[in-house]
Structure prediction request, 68 residues.
Amino acid sequence: MADLPGWNHDKPEGLAVVNDSTLAVSNDDDFGLTSSADGGRVLRKTDPVSGAPDYGEIRLVRLKRPLR
Prediction:
């Protein structure tokens, strides 16, 4: 997500309103697994930028203006 600096996951999978000026964005790590391009092998899911293992994350986003 280009609008969420440092978010290197392939997709956000959850969104929650914490309060009128904060959102929570989350992903899951798909059990830390993915498949090879040919579908023949199970691989550890990694962060596409750093190459580190991809773990679940919840990021709090402070809004510039409160929700109405």
Summary: The two ends are 24 Å apart (CA to CA). Residues 14-62 form one domain.
